[in-house]
Amino acid sequence: MNDILLLPMTSIYPNPNQPRKDFDKEKLNELAASIRQYGVLEPIVVTPRADRYMIIAGERRYRASQLAALETIPCIVREAADTLVEELALLENIQREDLNVIEIALAYKSLIDRGWTKEELASKMGFQQTWRIDEKIALLHLSEEHRALVVAGTLSNAQAQELARLSHAKQNIVRERILAGTLTTYNKLRAFVDGLILTENQSNLFALETVTDEERQAMDRTDTLLKTIERLITEAEPSNVKKAAYHAAITAERIDLIIQHLMKLRKLALSGEAIKQAATAENLCSECAAELGTAQ
After folding, report:
1. What pLDDT was estimated at residue 113?
2. Angle between the N-to-C axes of helices 278-295 and 238-247, in degrees from 0 to 180, rounded to the nearest 10
């Protein structure tokens, strides 16, 4: 039925799975003032649940109407299963651009947990590629602190995507560098995160039983060098690095060389060839450590 009914405010309640969690208090008060003067111009959409009605669309208008002390609110009543309710709530909020990126990520994950495929969800959202879904859901790997920074706009979407690739502890390291202004371009940020991922995962890369004593020794030396590189990267004070760079023979070309070495080592490790090429990995790490040591 699509008739507009005036329903008591007390008979209506919000959808507990509403994807939108944050409502701007100032804007709600502004809407409440408008409702007091002009009334609710657009009905909310509700669905019957037991002896009450659950909101499908229009929770912001409902909340503002509560602030305006209305006793009734215009509603369109629709029969809808829970899955349809969640779909409609998601679509309404996204179309109105009412959700922040974290809320969108939570909504996508909720729908996938309920049985949606990424292909179905991408199609519903108008995306041609499923990576658009993966990109949003990946943000849920962020710690609560960093989710809040993303919502506040302190961290950009690109920065958030890179932080989400790391453990929570490593996210703190990168955040401090971002806020300090030392990772000023995406390429610098990406290279820095790649380096942290390499040092974070390398202890598991060589956990194979088919290694010789010579290879194991080379791996241990590589491990030490990687930890040295991580320490040089993560503990260096930006001001000290600038001073060292001024007096040392460090150049943009040498920094690029360091990054190239790290990327070669990363590809070597992730390809599964690190065991048989441990000596090569050790040499690459030695060159990186030497270059970074010069910069200190």
Report:
1. 83
2. 90
